[in-house]
Amino acid sequence: MEALGVVVALVALFGVTLLVMAVVGTVKAAKAVAAKVDRHSTNAQRAVENAALKAKSLTRPGEQGRIAALRLSLRTGLDSTRQVLESGLPQDGQLGDALQLLARLDSHAAELDAELRMLEREPMSSRVTAKLPELRERTERITHSADSLRWAAQDRMRRFADDELARLGKECQDEAGALRHWTPADPGTADGPASASTAAHATGSPGAASASAQEPADRRKGLGAGRPTSAEELLGLAAEPLSRLADRLRKPNPAGPNRP
Prior knowledge:
The chain is mainly alpha-helical.
């Protein structure tokens, strides 16, 4: 019974753990979906607002059209810089500092955009005319700062791409040169000892000639090596020619056969 109770407790604990993990996963998935929806809805709303501002800048004359143009330039400048920095951030971590500066510019741009919206609803044209130059100057400062970040990031990414392309081209040239080396550098060393011996026999070197001249003598000397010494060699007759030996044998002895 105790063992059964332990098994039931473990199964219950396992089931509770699975339930908790499922709840946590569901909450995280819901948050991710909500964030994605919010981001897309924000982008869609911003796109609609930009289209409306563009239409106002083109259709409304006077100060209202100028205010709409300022708001549109402020939005497009910051959005373009943000897109460039976020696209290059995975390859270059140093762009994170630029994104932080852009976030600070966003806060100033939000305040300026709020003032421009209030100025659009201002009924007194004299106040609009008085405030517009100051707001235009602030807009130009913010957009110029954002443009500077975007241009610097673009130049940085282009420089890195050029360096990478130059390095890749050098590696391709080295590999192409290595692939063309299908023959040895010194053809004379490819044949080895066989070619050297063939060349020595063909050119008739003095060493080869002397070796060939000594070979028969050594061979003759080797034929007589190891045999016993004969009587003719002991009497010194072996060095004389056979004809002289025959003449000496035919010559009569004047002292007679019994005399030496």
